[in-house]
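REQUEST ID: PR-0412
SUBMITTED BY: lab tech R.K.
PRIORITY: routine
TASK: structure prediction, single protein chain
INPUT:
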Amino acid sequence: MASRLHNLSDYDLKSVPCAKGLKVGIVVSEWNGKITGSLLQGACDTLLRHGVEDDDILVQTVPGSFELVFGSAQMVKSGLVDAVIAIGCVIKGDTPHFDYICQGTTQGLADLNRKGDIPVIYGLLTCNTMEQAEDRSGGILGNKGDECAVTAIKMVDYKRQLLAKSKQQG
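STATUS: complete
OUTPUT:
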């Protein structure tokens, strides 16, 4: 979905399950800290608005977006959380570094989802310009952090519903 066609902070409140008792880990990159800080704030505000307690949000930082994979993997292994949100921002420069970081991070986070039992939510902005990143971190296109928090809540609920159905049939 193109975010220029959809505000990242718009969602139907009725479609979000109650998140009371949910424990969420957020791994946030220090690189492009102004942007990732805004994304983190959006995610935390949305989690709190839907019932997650402040003490049930575990925030850890990593140096850059590539390190989100290791940081998220460690957060999953800790057993302390029901979901992990990986927040980062990569802005295209003059070298192919952008492509390698985006591809490696995307593949790593996808692998964690494919192989794991805890949802890892993709909150990596991959932008051509700083203006695009600002637009998606609380600017005119909303805040990707809001979207990530809603996704985390819904994915944990999805998993819980499947487990409940499995127990009913088993």
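NOTES: The beta strands are 24-29, 57-62, 83-91, 120-127, 137-139, 142-143.
REVIEWED BY: pending
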